[in-house]
From TrEMBL:
<dbReference type="Pfam" id="PF00072">
    <property type="entry name" value="Response_reg"/>
</dbReference>
<feature type="modified residue" description="4-aspartylphosphate">
    <location>
        <position position="55"/>
    </location>
</feature>
<dbReference type="InterPro" id="IPR036388">
    <property type="entry name" value="WH-like_DNA-bd_sf"/>
</dbReference>
<feature type="domain" description="Response regulatory">
    <location>
        <begin position="5"/>
        <end position="119"/>
    </location>
</feature>
<dbReference type="InterPro" id="IPR011006">
    <property type="entry name" value="CheY-like_superfamily"/>
</dbReference>
<protein>
    <submittedName>
        <fullName>Two-component system, response regulator PdtaR</fullName>
    </submittedName>
</protein>
<dbReference type="InterPro" id="IPR001789">
    <property type="entry name" value="Sig_transdc_resp-reg_receiver"/>
</dbReference>
<feature type="domain" description="ANTAR">
    <location>
        <begin position="125"/>
        <end position="186"/>
    </location>
</feature>
<dbReference type="Pfam" id="PF03861">
    <property type="entry name" value="ANTAR"/>
</dbReference>
<keyword id="KW-0597">Phosphoprotein</keyword>
<dbReference type="GO" id="GO:0003723">
    <property type="term" value="F:RNA binding"/>
</dbReference>
<dbReference type="GO" id="GO:0000160">
    <property type="term" value="P:phosphorelay signal transduction system"/>
</dbReference>
<dbReference type="InterPro" id="IPR008327">
    <property type="entry name" value="Sig_transdc_resp-reg_antiterm"/>
</dbReference>
<dbReference type="InterPro" id="IPR005561">
    <property type="entry name" value="ANTAR"/>
</dbReference>
Amino acid sequence: MKRLRVVVAEDEALIRLDLKEMLEEVGHMVVGEAGDGMSAVELAAKIKPDLVIADIKMPVMDGLEAAEKIIEQEICPVLILTAYSEKELVERASRAGVMSYLVKPFKKDDLLPAIEVAMARYEEVKDLEGKVKELEKGFETRKLVDRAKGILMDTQGLTEAQAFRRIQKLSMDRRISMKEIAKTIIEANKAL
């Protein structure tokens, strides 16, 4: 695992210090420390760490609310560290988008797998988001091309295959995307 830049958000200074030491012993770098959730969000936005490790129970803003804000801003994954393992808190953490959940007391041997899981899940989510965006772009293009084909079929008496080939050929000849050709055909048809 690569060396991570980590923000630690924990209201108990002793636990924060222990966590910092554990992280540094295994090769990670603590780039920021916060004693409350609001400070954690502000630090994460400013520093852009690879990971935030946050306690649930903190003043000003709890760790789950802070995690939600950090995740909404797409800054980095959040690992929740807590002494509480109630089902409600675990579910709330899951809804917030937390990537891993570690119950205190913990050892260094517990922390490393939790970090690895958090980082792996975050990469999977990012990969899926990228794929969804690609699919959405493809779907939008297909809708536009289908509309343009319909216009060509109606106005020029072409078959669907001929209309598609016409759009494809125009795209290749003009060296612009089929989506742009389709938009041009749709706009030209609106002007009529």
